[in-house]
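Table S4 entry, Carboxyl-terminal processing protease.
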Amino acid sequence: MSTEKNTKAQIRLPLFLALGISAGIWIGATFAEPKTDRNDLKSAIYKLQEIITYINRDYVDSVDTNELVEFGIEKMLGKLDPHSSYIPAEDAALAKSQLEGEFDGIGIEFGILRDTIYVVSPLTGGPSEKIGLLPGDQIIKVDGETVAGTGVTNRDVFDLLRGPKGSEVQIGIKRKNEEDLLDFNITRDKIPQYSVNASYMIDNSTGYIKITRFAANTHEEFRSALQELKGEGMDRLILDLQGNPGGYMGAAINIADEILKDNAVIVSQEGKLKRYSQKARAVRPGSFEEGSVLVLVNEGSASASEIVAGAVQDNDRGLIVGRRSFGKGLVQMPIDLSDGAELRLTIARYFTPSGRSIQKPYGEGEEEYAMDYFNRMEHGEFFSADSIDFNDSLKYETVKGRTVYGGGGIMPDYFVPLDTSMTSSYVNRLFSSESWREFILDYVDQNKKKFEDMAFNEFYNDFEVSDKMLSKLVETGEKYEVKFNEKDFNKSKTYLKVLLKAHIARNLFDDNAFYKVINEINEIYQQALKLVDNADALAFFEE
C-alpha cells in the first residue's frame, strides 16, 4: 500500500464515508426497515460494490481493504451521535470483559514501570495469589520470551497474560533480594472484576457504598453490600457515583429498585422502533426502601449513574449532592459482527421519571461535544451553581412538586464547588509519572516488618506521611524529570500527604482502605457528611 499521504487523503474520505454508510445500511436492514426504503438500500449497496471493485482492480497502489473499511465505519458513526461506536475485533473481547464481571487470566493488578511489568497486587482468590506472587514482583519473561525493556504496553500485557481458563502460562519473576529469576507456571482461571469498590460504615448508622461502573455483577455486589451494612446498623446510605461512567442499564434499574418503593418509575426509553420503547418500574421489595439516601455525583458521572440519580431525585427519595453530571441520555445496543468486532449503536433515548431527557446537546459536532468538560470549567460551572443557565422550556416536576430541569445532566439538590485550593500542576505531574508508584513500592518493601501485624484502624489513626517521606518522593520524581516546584509543593503538601497515605493503604489493605483515606479530601463526600444528619427533615421526605 502506498505511504504517500496525499494519495490516501484523496481516496479515503469519500470512499469510506460510503463504506460506513453501507455498513449502517446492512445493520439497519436487519431491523425490518419500511419497504419504501429498500430500493434506496439496494442502490447504495450497489454503488459501494462498484467503488470497491474499481479501487481493488484499478487503483495505482495496493490497498488494504480491511483497514479502509474500518476507517470508513468509524467516520460514518461519527456522523450519527457521540456514543455510537465501533470496536475492532482485536479489542472487542477486552471491552466486553470490562462489563461482564469476570475474565480469564492470571489475576493481577499490574503497572508498567521503567519499561517493565510489575505486580501492583495479586487479586484475591486468583491463581497468582495462590501460587505466591507478591506486590512489587517484576515480570521479566513470559513463556520464555523476554518482555522487560521491549517497549511493552498495557495492550501487550492483556495479550500475554489473559487466556482461556485452564490454559497455562510460564512467567519469570525478578523479586527483590533474589539474585535469580523465579519461574512460576500459572494456570489461568476466571477472575472476578468488582464494581462495588468500597463499602463501609462511616459511623454507627451511616453506610457508604462506592460503585465505579455498572457491570453484569454490580446489582448482586450492591445488594450484598447493603445487607452487610444493614447488619452493622446502617439506616442512612451514602451512595457514591462520582466518576462512574455508566455501563449496563439493567444494573442501574435493579439498583434503583432496591431503593425505590414498588411501582415507582425508574426510567423510560423511546426509540424509532417500538421494541426499543419501554418504561421500567420498581417491581420487587427492595433492600433499602426506608432510610435516608444521599447520592454523590460529579461531572464524570454518566449514563447508568444518571439513571440512578435521576430516579432517586424525581421520586423525591433522597438528596443528590455534588456537581452537574455528564449528560448522557442515549441508549446503546451492542451488536456482535461476523468477524468478532462489535457495534454499539444508539437505539433510543432515555428519560427520567419526570419525563426529562438529560442528554446534553451534540448538534455542534463531535469536537465541541468532547470539549464540554473544559467549556464548563471555563464558564465557571464547577465553582458556582449560578453560572448554569436553565431553560424554562425544559422545566419538570418531581413526584412532590419540586422543580428540576432537563437539557443536560442531573443538577444536584446540593451543589458542591470543585476545591482546587490544594492541587497544583507539580503534584499532577508527579502523580502522572511513574515516580509515585516506584516510591510506594520501595517504601512498603522497606517497611514490611513495621506493617506486618498492623490492622487498618491502627494504620488509619496512627500512620502519618512524614516530611522525610515527601523529600524522598520529590527525589524520586526528579529521576523521572519531574522538576521540583517549591511554591506548588508547599501549596499541596497536605493534599500530597493524604494521597500518599491512601495509595499506601491500598497497597497494604484494599480499596476500602483507599477510599476511607482519600475521602478525607473529597469535598463532595465531606459535604454529604454535613447533610446526612438533617436529610430526614427535608421537605420531600415528609409524607
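The first strand starts at residue 85 and ends at 87.
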